[in-house]
Amino acid sequence: MMKKLILMLIFIMMLFLQVNIKAESSSLTHSLDRFGNPVITQDAYLPLYQVANYSEERFNNPKDMHIDKNDYLYIADTGNKKIVILDDKNEFVLSFGEDYLMKPTGVFVRDELIFIADYGASDDQGSGRVFIVEFNKELKSATLINEFARPKSPVLEINNFIYRPSKIAVDQNKTMYVVSEGSYNGILMINEKNRFLGFFAPNNVKGTLRDYLVQFFYGNNEKALLKKKIPPSAYNVFLNDSGYVYTITQTNVDENQRGNTLKKVNNGGINFFSKKMYSASDFTSVTSGSVGNIYAVTRSGFIYEYDNEGNLLFIFGGPSDEDRLGLFKTTSAIATNSKDQVYVLDGSGNKYHVFEPTNFTSTVHQALDLYNQGKYVESESTWEEVLRYNALFDLAHKGIGKSYFIRGDYKNALKKFKIAEADEEYSLAFWEIRNIWLQKYAGVFIIAMVFLYVVAVIIKKQKLLLKLANSNLGTNIKGNQYFQELKFMFYYLKSPLDAFYEVKANKRVKVKTGIFYGFIMIMLYVLFLLLTGQLFKPVILERAVFSEEVLKVLVPLITFVFANYLVSSLMEGEGTLKAVFINTIGALMPVVVIMPLLIIISNVLTLNEVFIYQFIFFIMIAWSATLLFFSVKDTHNFSVKQTIYHFLMTILMMIVILIVFIMIYMMMMQVVEFVGNIIKEVIIHA
Fold first, then answer.
1. How many domains, the chain?
2. What is the H or E stretch that residue 148 is in?
3. pTM for the whole thing?
4. Contact in structure between 405 and 425 (CB atoms under 8 Å)
5. Which domain, by its residues, includes 398?
6. 595 FRET partner, CA 20 to 30 A, in 106, 221, 295, 417?
7. What is the pLDDT of residues 139-184, one digit of tens each?
8. Whole-angstrom Cα distance, residue 72 to residue 524?
9. Which of 76, 35, 47, 282 is nearest to 165 (CA)?
């Protein structure tokens, strides 16, 4: 009888228990590989339970949540027009606001004061309010202190600003950061007396090439009927005691999921997160963790965790149309407590879910905590433990590299920074290695240079090169026509106009010589990809397909030559196809001379000297482009105006040629596929 009674009590408790516990992951966890692509990793967080009701009510379209230092949970229960408070055990404490709140969509707690952003009635543009309520935990009471409408400010009145508070955050000075719907000037900064202080962290808007051209030609002429560019308004805001303000803007990201929709802004409005950080276009809420980590959640339910520098750690969660723990319908807010548990509010699902970090994530957080404090050596063993969970976790390699660097083990630090693709740290380690090498071998290097200079002077005075040239070997080389053609190609660098004329009029160079130098350029490009230093490498070698890389050089070169000749034929140019090809190769001779230098210096420079590399690269491109321009002009005997027009038509012709070849290729592939299918049908029915 006693056993039946106990079983019945357990069954009744399970029916009325509002917390559903589940200790397994309902979604996959992803992190980024070294190429910036998401890959599956160990579970970072496990869903613990979900809560859908409080006291005798259920949540109704909740829009925001906040957790204070005592782990009390505050929820803006928008549909029920109230604020709900739960304690650290998810037990109901009290609710308030039914008699004065219209549409509470934002809530923030600072020093026992609850700040509420009330959107107001949809049909009343002046009903938006910010309410300040004092909460007494001991008495379990909430007392309304202030009710603020739109601040009185000439800036807001002149623009007839419509006050629609949707989200709110408050700093230690009780300055309120209010997100108002449609405020493209930025977040409103309002002090505790409802005085408008200004707009904070406005978003920038990028103009297109068309916008710049229209602006250049029309200026500020209103008759041009230029469409005004309006920057996107902020969607949410959060701040902690670190002094930084975190903002969310729902704008597009690129095809690689890169963008600045999540920002970490200081008091000066400077964003400390990269504009190319891994992001999402539909973030709805952001919060911070206990070790400087940042959480952001998308509308569809994916939770992103970053370190304090904006490097992505994990992505977990996800969408579901069904009622599943750890998956969401439409998320509206995220918060964390002192135990590093993550609370996610599902507005459409009318509940919140709670996640707990796994041992793997707790280890990452321990290492991050030491790393953020500058205790790189102390964090090394913890990072090693992280690598035992996931050997491809780049942040761990970076942390261990920092430890090596502090201990003076620059070579091992360099290896770790290379694995982690940490270019700045790699540059610092390489700087130290280079300094040690210079201190050790600088004297020997200088002596060797002096010795080579003396040898060069002796050779010059003794006229040894002249004697070699007059010897039998020298005579044979000088008499070799192919050698003379190879040597003549460098004449493009010294006297390009004469070289263009000699090739066109006197046919000084054969086609095979041009092909040889074209092959040299392709080989130099391949060496450029393979041997360029870590800090300046143009592609990721592990992902590069060298046949495709070769085609990137070969196809434009061949297409340009044929397009150049075809257009010149229509414009009555004087150059032959042979002259066009050889002079085009000759115009690219700066690549043959400068590319090896770029490869060499890329392996001895750091990021501090990047301007040297960029300047030399610019000289190579500018020199080649100039020679190419005069190559077309002199080969076809065009004027400057005709040459410019010819270049534009050549580019258009190149596009046409490429389109034609692509269409031919697609048609051939369709024919091959059709024939293949017929053969398969014959074989099957034979």
1. 3
2. strand 141-148
3. 0.81
4. yes
5. 365-462
6. 417
7. 999 999 999 999 988 888 877 788 999 999 999 999 999 999 888 8
8. 65
9. 76
